[in-house]
């Protein structure tokens, strides 16, 4: 079982823009070191409406993640531009690190979900995706575990599940609007959501 002292990458989806302060309170309460990867949210949605190339859209959307990251930082959270294990609650401003490494396809099939998975891979730590959905669904039913690396769904981007399986990343998808689920997930408790763990 993972120790609560073990750092965790936590992607905070852009749809949780209105939940930033309560989520940060939970992170601090639990006391587990977390590196927050911000979603793109409304900033990336604006880019989607523009007639730009895939490459321009890719970097503009990541710049949108950075804007959300600064919003999170404005709530008293240190901001980091380099990928490193967090000592406490830290938010990653991902643009410079991604520009330097450029590890992922320039496509709307890649969103902050797979970017967060890439960060978790780089640090060899687990990943928690907080979204405004209860987890991953198949045939309209919530599934507790993803066992098929070819599964397609609407809750995460198309590259996420294959990437997680390819790189052996343990990831959970949990609804960030339920404080008890977030708290439990940070404590490695069983909560409503979906586990994607290629190591089982």
As residue ranges, the low-confidence spans are none
Distance between the termini: 13 Å
Query: What letter string, H or E per element, gives the SSE order?
Result: EHEHHEEHHEEEEHEHE
- Radius of gyration computed on alpha carbons: 15 Å
Mean pLDDT: 94
> How is the biggest beta sheet arranged?
8 strands, mixed
Strand content: 15-25%
Structural class: alpha/beta
Q: Provide the helix percentage.
A: 25-40%
Number of strands: 10
User: Count the helices. How many?
Assistant: 7
How would you sum up the global shape?
A: globular
Query: Strand order of the main beta sheet, please?
Result: 3-4-2-1-5-9-10-8
Features:
200 residues, alpha/beta, eight-stranded mixed sheet, 37% helix, globular
Explain this structure to me?
The protein has helices spanning 20-30, 41-48, 54-73, 95-101, 112-123, 160-167, 179-186; strands at 8-12, 34-38, 79-80, 89-92, 127-131, 137-138, 141-142, 145-146, 171-175, 194-196. The protein has 7 helices and 10 strands. The chain is an alpha/beta fold and 200 residues long. Helix 1 packs parallel to helix 7 (179-186) and helix 2 packs antiparallel against helix 3 (54-73). The longest helix has 20 residues, at 54-73. A hairpin with a 2-residue loop joins strand 6 and strand 7. The strands form 2 sheets. An 8-stranded mixed β-sheet has the order 3-4-2-1-5-9-10-8. The two termini are 13 Å apart.
């Amino acid at each position: 079982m993972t120790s609560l002292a073990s750092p965790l990458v936590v992607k905070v989806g852009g749809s949780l823009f209105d939940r930033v302060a309560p989520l940060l309170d939970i992170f601090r309460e639990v006391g587990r070191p977390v590196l927050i990867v911000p979603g793109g949210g409304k900033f990336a949605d604006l880019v989607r409406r523009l007639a730009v190339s895939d490459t321009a859209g890719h970097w503009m959307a990541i710049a949108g993640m950075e804007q959300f990251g600064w919003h999170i930082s404005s709530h008293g959270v240190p901001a980091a531009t380099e990928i490193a294990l967090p000592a406490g609650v830290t938010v990653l401003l991902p643009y410079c690190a991604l520009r330097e490494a450029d590890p992922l396809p320039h496509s709307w099939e890649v969103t902050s979900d797979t970017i967060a998975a890439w960060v978790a891979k780089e640090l060899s730590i687990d990943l928690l995706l907080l979204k405004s959905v209860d987890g991953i669904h198949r045939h309209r039913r919530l599934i507790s575990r993803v066992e098929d690396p070819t599964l397609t769904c609407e809750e995460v981007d198309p590259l996420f599940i294959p990437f997680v399986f390819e790189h052996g990343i343990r990831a959970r998808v949990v609804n960030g609007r339920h404080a008890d689920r977030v708290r439990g997930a940070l404590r490695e408790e069983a909560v409503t959501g979906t586990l994607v763990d290629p190591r089982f």
